[in-house]
Design goal:
With 146 residues, this protein is of the alpha/beta class. It has five helices and five strands. It has one domain: Rossmann fold, CATH 3.40.50. α3 runs parallel beside α5.
Length: 146
């Protein structure tokens, strides 16, 4: 069994990340995990969640992201792949690394967004964190500038 993890964020490069991951996943004996880390609900990280309108907004966002993830999974299933979409709430860097390790993949596919050095210094790079922590080869799909 070959396990492939694709980290998706619904950016412009996401479709290409999923396509590359699908090519690495053998149809007969492979499993593709589509992993999206959703922003943690404030209550999950120890903050007061605020008014009902905020909770409703977060619920709508999760629902929309879940639907997008399910649509991606359906597209991969049409190609004969076994796919599990995972919407994981939490802090992006921590959860991306945690899920990548937990799923014990043979390959990880992630997009490179080409952020500038200041952004990387302040926010950190998910791609870099995955490269350091992944227990397997990592395929980085570059942004095509046009």
């Amino acid at each position: 069994m070959v396990n492939v993890v694709a980290l998706v964020d619904f950016s412009d490069i996401t479709d290409e990340v999923v396509q590359v991951a699908a090519r690495l996943t053998p149809a007969a004996e492979g499993h593709l995990y589509l992993v999206h880390v959703a922003s943690a609900e404030p209550e999950f990280v120890g903050y007061d969640v605020g008014p009902q309108a905020v909770r409703n907004s977060i619920a709508r966002q999760y629902h929309q992201e879940h639907q997008q993830l399910e649509a991606m999974a359906a597209g991969a299933r049409e190609k004969g792949l076994t796919v599990t979409p995972l919407l994981v709430p939490g802090m992006l860097l921590e959860k991306a690394v945690e899920e990548t390790t937990r799923l014990e993949p043979d390959w990880v596919v992630v997009g490179s967004h080409g952020h500038r050095a200041l952004y990387e210094l302040l926010v950190g790079s998910v791609t870099e964190a995955i490269l350091r922590a992944a227990p397997c080869p990592v395929v980085v799909v570059p942004v095509r500038r046009g």
